[in-house]
Amino acid sequence: MARRRSSARRGFVSRWLRRLVIVALVALVIPLPLTLALRVMQPPTTAMMLARAWQRAWAGEKPVYPSRTVVAHDDVAPALYRAVLAAEDDRFYLHKGFDFTEIEKAIEERRAGGRLRGASTLSQQVAKNIFLWEGRSWVRKGLEAYFTLWLEIVVPKDRILDLYVNLAEWGDGTFGVEAASQRYFRKSAKSLTRDQAARLAAILPSPRRWSPTGGTATARSRSILARMAYPAPRPADARRS
User: Could you tell me which of 124, 87, 79 has the C-alpha nearest to residue 205?
Assistant: First the structure.
């Protein structure tokens, strides 16, 4: 009798271990088809947009669903791409999804008594905005890192940048550079000037609090314009090609 019970327990544990292994393998593989699709299409929506829609619905704001217009690469002013890199991730073409140089700088600044600042790359922001929720939990950061790895493996850098400018939040109820350009400057993203591009990039850290024409954006845009004077750094082999 005791042997039968022991055998039954071992069988139960074995079945659940097999199930856990299968679930783990599925979870590991799921990001592959999702990120592969991003090579050729913009996501119809994102986790961030759905979260904002829920918040707007709860607050009774209209329209509930945020405004977003997807545009092709050639329909965005080159100055906007450069401004985004200058403001958010100037080493974008040099890292593989995680900028350890900036992470070390942020840690050193914190040790020196400064405020702990974020060091998220554009790739990390794309992964978070498309797939994940807001927050600072270790679980979310772990998932963000995992999706970022897949994104960098599967999707070319220029494509990641296109994804970013089309899904970034640029104000309450405003996602993507085309919607932002129309909202703030009454023009298409393709017609943005260097100053307007720098001002839009300047509000990315806090788009629902800052305006492109406000004092914070004005001050931040000056340093962004200074960095826009030179091309974004690229690997030496890429510059030669």
Answer: 87
Tell me how far the alpha carbon of residue 222 is from its chain's centroid. 24
Closest CA to 82 of 210, 227, 203: 227
Work out whether strand 174-175 and strand 67-68 pair parallel, antiparallel, or are unpaired. Answer: parallel
**Where residue 169 falls among pLDDT bands split at 50, 70, 90?**
very high
Which CATH number belongs to the domain containing residue 212 in this structure?
Answer: 1.10.3810.10
Whether residue 4 lies inside any domain: the answer is no
Cα(50)–Cα(149) distance, integer angstroms: 24
Total-model pTM: 0.81
The number of residues in the chain equals: 241
Residue 3 placed within a domain: no
What confidence score (pLDDT) does residue 239 get?
46
Give me the amino acid identity at 3: R
Where are any strands of DSSP class E within 1-136? Answer: 67-68
* pLDDT value, residue 133: 75
* Count of alpha carbons within 13 angstroms of residue 171, beta-carbon side: 21
Q: How far is CA 116 from CA 69, 100, 148, 195, in A?
A: 34, 15, 22, 29
User: Nearest CA to 198 among 69, 72, 85?
Assistant: 85
Mean pLDDT of 206-219: 94
